[in-house]
Amino acid sequence: MRLSYFDTRSDQYRTIETDPMRIVAVRTARSQRLLAEARPHLQQEIEVLGEDIAHIRTDVTVSDQLEPLYARPVFLALLPLPLLAVGAAFAVRRRRDQLASDVALARSSRARKIAHRSLSQAERFLKAGRSEEFYAEVSRALLQYVGDKLNVAPSGLTHDDLRQHLGGAGANEDTCERVVQVLEHCDAARFSPGSFTEEKMRRTLREVESLIAGMEDRWSRKGSRFVMASLALCSALLAWSALFSAPLAAPSAGAESPTPSPRSDQSVAADEEVPLRLEQEPVEFVPPQDLIRRANAAYEKGRFAGAIDLYRRAEAMGVRNGALYYNLGNAYFKSGDLGRAIATYRRAERLMPRDGLLRANLEFVLLQREDKAVQPPDPWMLLLAKRVFRWMNLNEWILVTAVLYVLTCAVALYRILGGRKRLVSRVLLFAAVGLLLLSSLTLAFKVRDERGIARGVVTAERIAVMSGPGQDYTVEFWLHEGSEVRVEVERPDWLRVSMGGNLRGWIPTASLARI
Q: What does the pLDDT look like over 340-352, one tens digit per residue?
């Protein structure tokens, strides 16, 4: 071995050496293992040995997400409230403008308030025992009220003038005489305060309050009728929403809810192969959550027919959400029922369109069908709306539209009631109205696509599509299990279906599972 270094003492580089050393290397098992571990591994692609659908979900909640919000009574009851608030704001704004421009109306509107304030002061005089000030305040309150209501100056009014003005305003003769008598009583008491007791003062105060209340009721009866009519209209709207929304809340047996109960259209088709014990024999009541738990356990043990039965019993009890239909679609696929698996997955897709596992399962199952999908052409506006909002289900989009609706009404309220930033409120109002119109239009297309068009999936292994509703017609073409069609015409035993373009014909009702 040789080593070179710098010697600081002599300021020179020096080299020192050792005698030669002999080393003998012997190969052992340990050395081979260390060599193998030190050698870098060569990466290679993972070999996929098989594919299958994703496993079921265990987080199924007992909820009904299939029913749209617009069919629920509470939603319908709350829907007219923002518009009623806007209408009330218009009424307040109109009243405020009238008061600003009409002196007589302004005086008449605040007459009761001013009179109440004066009578409160008179009551304090009564408690303090100051009879002269009490009667002066009572007289002033009554004259001021009459003058404000009739838009005349209260000072200088004689009793004859009072009778004339009150009679011209519609007051009866008894009211006129009572007003004059109270004023005469107050004048007499002011000049001889010692002759009137506290009890007489209280009777005078109650008489004036009764007179003012009676005249207020007579002169404000028209306005009261308007208020009562408005309240009655609001009550009628709320009652209508609560009473007549119940029929809308019931799901139909068509394209909207294929399996709300064991006797729906889809169940009729399913009874041939997957009978429901719920229809054949009475069973003990089991909570929906327990049914779902039992169904999950049956699925994991490979008893897929039993899992289907339990899932559908939970569905018949009102559990209709994306997670349940996801599990039910898995059970159908595992049991070999490709058509109902696709139909159930499509139903789950409507409720949770952003779910990655559902999308993967649906794509995998669609590859198993024999017929190539033929999609009917959609209008470009509907296609654009689907692409923009395809990650939102119907209820989520209803909520977005409802929020924009409330926001638009709130901006309108701010503008009607005289917000300071008029330009900002105008811009916000136009923006809110534009967004509301856009969301409403897209919501209309979404409702039409999901609720207005009946769709289904072929469940028969191979079915002939006839030219008419019967077996004696010509066979137009053949469809295989899993093909998705649109239902155009419904008859008790036959359906006219379309796959887009000229591909349309009649198939038996029992061979189709509704989406």
A: 999 999 999 999 9
